[in-house]
UniProtKB/TrEMBL annotation:
Keyword Ubl conjugation: no
GO MF, one example: RNA endonuclease activity
GO biological process: mRNA catabolic process; translational termination
SUPFAM superfamilies named among the record's database cross-references: RelE-like (SSF143011)
Organism: Bifidobacterium mongoliense
Residues annotated as the enzyme's active site: 86
Keywords: Toxin-antitoxin system
Full protein name: Toxin RelE
Superkingdom in the source lineage: Bacteria
Taxonomic lineage of the native organism: Bacteria, Bacillati, Actinomycetota, Actinomycetes, Bifidobacteriales
Keyword Plastid set for record: no
A Pfam match: YafQ_toxin
Length: 90
């Protein structure tokens, strides 16, 4: 299993989403899938993909509709970088 770590910007994003009543259970579920590195779920349900351009080195998955999770993998560690909507992140 991989280790999950977060950065301060991600925590600020989560706080903002909680205030907007996003379902944090869905975020916890996505983190568990990342921890297990379940490629079938990541590629299918979460539409996980590599980012390009100035976000090279990061990956993005869709938690729900327009709700995204941007992260980076370093060995056995997953660093959660940002979460929010397309408009808010990109």
């Amino acid at each position: 299993m991989r280790e999950i770590s977060v950065n301060p910007v991600f925590l600020r994003d989560v706080k903002r989403l909680k205030q907007k009543h996003f379902d944090m259970g869905l975020l916890v579920e996505a983190q568990a899938v990342l921890r297990r590195n379940d490629r079938m779920l990541l590629d299918g349900r979460y539409r996980d993909h590599q980012l390009k351009g100035n976000m090279r080195g990061f990956r993005e998955l869709h938690i729900q509709g327009d709700w995204l999770l941007v992260y980076r993998v370093e060995g056995e560690r997953v660093i959660l970088a940002r979460t929010g909507t397309h408009d808010g992140l990109l």
